[in-house]
Design brief:
The protein is of the alpha/beta class. Helix content is 20%, strand content 41%. The protein contains 3 helices and 8 strands. The strands form 2 sheets. Strands 1-4-3-2 form a 4-stranded mixed beta sheet. Strands 5-8-7-6 form a 4-stranded mixed beta sheet, with helices on one face. The relative contact order is 0.18.
């Protein structure tokens, strides 16, 4: 059996979230999509369930975080090039997200951060693993 990852995020407006991620070039699994949530495909075995907040609450007895004021998770996605990192962040801003924090450039890793319309923290990064510094 292949292990798959499904992250679950509460969203205030499911249609707005679908539109936002569609405009960034992501697709969704229709098998796991209805008026309560959708399955955002990150990679073959990595998915993010965007769940309407009221539906999300049925999975937990805890208070749901307001991602605009608190942080519970940072979702990091690797891409093929530095240019792709910049392209994604440019598109994020065009479609209603916000660039967040300063760009980090470690030489071997380059990353930018953004907030989606619900305030969830995402990082997009390029990493050249052949250039990772070795220990001292």
């Amino acid at each position: 059996m292949i292990t798959k990852i499904f992250l679950n995020l509460p969203v205030k407006d499911l249609n707005r979230s679908i539109e936002f991620f569609t405009q960034l070039g992501f697709s969704f699994n229709p098998q796991f999509t209805n008026e309560k949530g959708t399955c955002l495909i990150i990679a073959e075995n990595i998915n993010v369930m965007l769940l309407a907040e009221e539906f999300y609450k049925t999975f937990t007895n805890k208070q749901v975080c307001d991602a605009n004021t608190t942080s519970e998770v940072i979702i990091a996605i690797s891409v093929e090039t530095r240019e792709k990192v910049n392209e994604i962040i440019e598109n994020v801003v065009k479609v209603g997200g916000a660039e967040y924090m300063d760009t980090k450039d470690y030489g071997w890793m380059y990353q930018k951060m953004f907030l989606d319309p619900d305030g969830h923290h995402w990082e997009v990064f390029f990493m050249d693993e052949s250039q990772i510094p070795t220990g001292n």
